């Protein structure tokens, strides 16, 4: 059965607190923290971008998989912050893990769900026998306009998944997607920051798609929330995540490991891949996981995953997600503005 | 400029050097002739581990134009496990935290960019090994 052969996470070291951003814009930090359930966010340094994050995560995934990188037949990088408008990120990643030149590669875009779309594409190519292994990465260095509500959450990070059929640490029991044309969040060509539909991003966008994808998958698989040991959902903030988890009937012990946004912010395409990597770090063979991404625009990909006994052989072969969560250095708004190139010179 | 950095992508992304099979010496960047063995040079490509120690370092306060925004930063000579010494920036590390003998590992970062519409050059840097 097609499954996960290796996984790896990466989160930049720098953090900015909600208090520090709120201080600059004269807002009440407690109201923001309570409203969003986000306390701080990860910030990339000047020499980090989606490509470097994707490479670090992929190298960690390779360490766990112990495969020859030349056996990777496809590399897909899902992001909404590719370093170039034209010139793929995926070729940089493929070269930096020494998988070139016999492979196919492409960059994917679908707001925050481009990473899980890459996983599905790799599943299909592996299942059909066209490739032996596929590498799918979700990574972002998301930007919010200065002073916009998104600035408190738009963060950086990513995770990589090597998909294959042999020596899997987790098997895909099934996948299901739910997609409609919904303009809840967008960024036009040439514009530095995205715009969003305010309250419209909630009910008809995030909640509708995540709930339909999760329920659609459970109906297809004949499962209920209690059949899963863990779950993870897209997490633009902590509040949406907990509300969607509870609405679907999941309990805290099921959703707690998947929720990272309160500590690192919304890593966009990296969010579900990173939440899933934290679950994999904590779970045991035989346990079952439900993962549901969300991308504005809009769509959700849901996955039903069963962990194999092999998981404990690979967990310690690369830094765990918790290592990156705890490795942090706080910066002030001025350094943040410099790192994020918000000051034009 | 684009062509010059493109030629070195493979070795700079993956720390590929050469090892002389005749005497065992490792070189990075790769070269044509082993100075110890001259005509007996017998090179093979070697992928370096990227793990090593700070051999010596310098904190750059007045940086060249491409690196001004990063100053102050640490430039170090790293002695890799394979015995070869290479120069690189040490990142995720404050200038007052670096010391001779500090264990480091390789990371993949942006090196420089040719303005805001030019090619971005990527390559190796080093970060402290924390644990
Ligand atoms: Zn020699």
Question: How would you describe this structure to a colleague?
Answer:
The complex is a heterodimer of chains A (345) and B (131). Chain A has two domains: 188 residues, Peroxisomal Thiolase, Chain A, domain 1; 143 residues, Peroxisomal Thiolase, Chain A, domain 1. In chain A, the strands form three sheets. Chain A has a nine-stranded mixed sheet with strand order 5-4-6-7-1-8-13-12-11, sandwiched between helices. Chain A has a three-stranded mixed sheet with strand order 3-2-14. Chain A starts with a strand and ends in a 6-residue tail after the last helix. Chain A is an alpha/beta fold and 345 residues long. Chain B is mainly beta and 131 residues long. Chain B folds into two domains: 48 residues; 83 residues, OB fold (Dihydrolipoamide Acetyltransferase, E2P) (Beta Barrel). A five-stranded antiparallel sheet of chain B has the order 6-5-4-7-8. Chain B is globular, with a radius of gyration of 16 Å. At the A-B interface, helix 3 and helix 4 of A face helix 2, strand 7 and strand 8 of B.
Keywords:
heterodimer; A: 345 residues; alpha/beta; Peroxisomal Thiolase, Chain A, domain 1; 2 domains; nine-stranded mixed sheet; three-stranded mixed sheet; B: 131 residues; mainly beta; OB fold (Dihydrolipoamide Acetyltransferase, E2P); five-stranded antiparallel sheet; three-stranded antiparallel sheet; 2 helices; 9% helix; 43% strand; binds zinc ion
The average pLDDT of chain A is 96
Rg of chain A computed from alpha carbons, rounded to a whole number of angstroms: 19 Å
- Give a short account of the largest sheet of chain B: 5 strands, antiparallel
Question: Count of DSSP E strands of chain B?
Answer: 8
Distance between the termini of chain A: 53 Å
The coarse overall form of chain B would be: globular
Write the layout of secondary structure elements.
The complex is a heterodimer of chains A (345) and B (131).
Chain A: E1 3-10, E2 14-17, H1 18-25, H2 29-36, E3 40-43, H3 50-65, E4 72-78, H4 89-96, E5 104-108, H5 114-127, E6 133-141, E7 156-164, E8 170-182, E9 185-186, E10 195-196, H6 202-221, E11 230-233, H7 238-248, H8 252-255, H9 261-264, H10 271-282, E12 288-292, E13 297-307, H11 311-314, H12 321-326, E14 329-330, H13 333-339
Parallel strand pairs in A: 2-14, 4-5, 4-6, 11-12
Antiparallel strand pairs in A: 1-7, 1-8, 2-3, 6-7, 8-13, 9-10, 12-13
Helix pairs in contact in A: 1-2, 3-4, 6-7
Chain B: H1 2-7, H2 9-14, E1 16-20, E2 26-27, E3 43-47, E4 51-60, E5 73-80, E6 85-90, E7 103-113, E8 120-128
Antiparallel strand pairs in B: 1-2, 1-3, 4-5, 4-7, 5-6, 7-8
The complex binds zinc ion (ZN).
Zinc ion is lined by residues 20, 22-23, 25, 34, 36-37, 41 of chain B.
């Amino acid at each position: 059965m097609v499954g996960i052969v290796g996984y790896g996470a990466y989160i930049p070291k720098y953090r900015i607190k909600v208090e520090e951003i709120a201080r600059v814009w004269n807002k009440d930090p407690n109201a923001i923290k309570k409203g969003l359930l986000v306390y701080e966010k990860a910030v990339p340094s000047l020499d980090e971008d989606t490509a470097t994050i994707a490479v670090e995560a992929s190298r960690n995934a390779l360490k766990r998989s112990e495969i020859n990188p030349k056996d990777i037949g496809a590399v897909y990088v899902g992001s909404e912050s590719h370093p170039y408008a034209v010139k793929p990120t995926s070729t940089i990643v493929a070269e930096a893990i020494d998988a070139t030149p016999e492979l196919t590669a492409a960059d994917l875009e679908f707001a925050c769900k481009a990473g899980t779309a890459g996983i599905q594409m790799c599943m299909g190519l592996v299942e059909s026998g066209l490739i032996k292994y596929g590498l799918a990465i979700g990574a972002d260095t998301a930007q919010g306009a200065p002073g916009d509500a998104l600035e408190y959450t738009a963060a950086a990070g990513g995770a990589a998944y090597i998909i294959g059929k042999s020596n899997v640490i987790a098997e895909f029991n099934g996948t299901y997607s739910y997609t409609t044309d919904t303009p809840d969040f967008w960024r036009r060509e040439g514009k530095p920051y995205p715009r969003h539909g305010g309250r419209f991003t909630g009910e008809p966008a995030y909640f509708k798609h995540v709930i339909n994808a999760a329920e659609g998958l459970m109906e297809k698989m004949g499962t209920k929330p209690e059949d899963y040991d863990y779950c993870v959902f897209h997490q633009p903030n902590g509040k949406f995540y907990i509300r969607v988890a509870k609405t679907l009937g999941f309990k805290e012990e099921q959703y707690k490991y998947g929720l990272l946004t309160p500590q690192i912010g919304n890593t966009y395409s990296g969010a579900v891949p990173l939440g899933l990597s934290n679950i994999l770090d904590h779970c045991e063979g035989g346990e079952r996981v439900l993962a549901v991404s969300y991308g504005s625009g809009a769509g959700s990909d849901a996955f039903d995953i069963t962990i194999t006994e092999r998981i404990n052989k690979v967990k310690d072969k690369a830094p765990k997600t918790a290592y990156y969560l705890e490795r942090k250095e706080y910066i002030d708004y001025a350094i943040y503005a410099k790192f994020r190139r918000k000051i034009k010179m | 400029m684009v062509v010059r950095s493109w030629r070195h992508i493979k070795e700079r992304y993956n720390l590929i050097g050469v090892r002389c099979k005749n005497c065992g010496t490792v070189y990075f960047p790769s070269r044509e002739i082993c100075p110890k063995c001259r005509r007996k040079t017998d090179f093979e490509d070697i992928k370096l581990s990227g793990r090593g120690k700070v051999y010596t370092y310098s904190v750059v306060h007045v940086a060249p134009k491409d690196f001004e925004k990063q100053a102050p930063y640490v430039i170090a000579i790293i002695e890799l496990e394979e015995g070869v010494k290479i120069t690189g920036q040490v990142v995720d590390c404050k200038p007052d935290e670096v010391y001779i003998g500090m264990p480091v590992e390789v990371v993949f970062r942006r090196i420089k960019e040719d303005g805001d519409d030019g090619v971005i050059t990527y390559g190796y840097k080093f970060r402290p090994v924390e644990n």
